[in-house]
Specification:
Length: 136
Amino acid sequence: MGQSKAFDTALTIIEAEIIAEKTKPIEKPKPSTQIIDMVNILVLDKQTLLDLDGEGVLEKLLLRSPSSSFSITLTTEKISMQGSYTHFQDVCAYQEDDTYVLELTNIEFKQHLRLVLTVAESITFSKIFIKYAIKD
């Protein structure tokens, strides 16, 4: 006894769905964006701002301080950047009236990123803003 036309059609549809499922491109996980936005933060000595494992990008770091007596250490698997406000002046650090501003953007990392803020004397930062994206 032969199979019905409806059965053959259903079987063809199921086979097509199986093939489509097997050939579907694998979607890479999308990076999740995180924002840390702090105001009037007292830093007494050394403060780790970020310690991340994974692949991602530090999209923006913005520090606003009434004093230039601070430094940052930024380390990834490829770079180690360390310097005081003065070290970064005219590159990514500048003064607005009585405020010292340091701004970094688009630092990519494949395995890890560590960002440490160090002060020579206790400083209340008017703003510490960090935006980064990391793949889950």
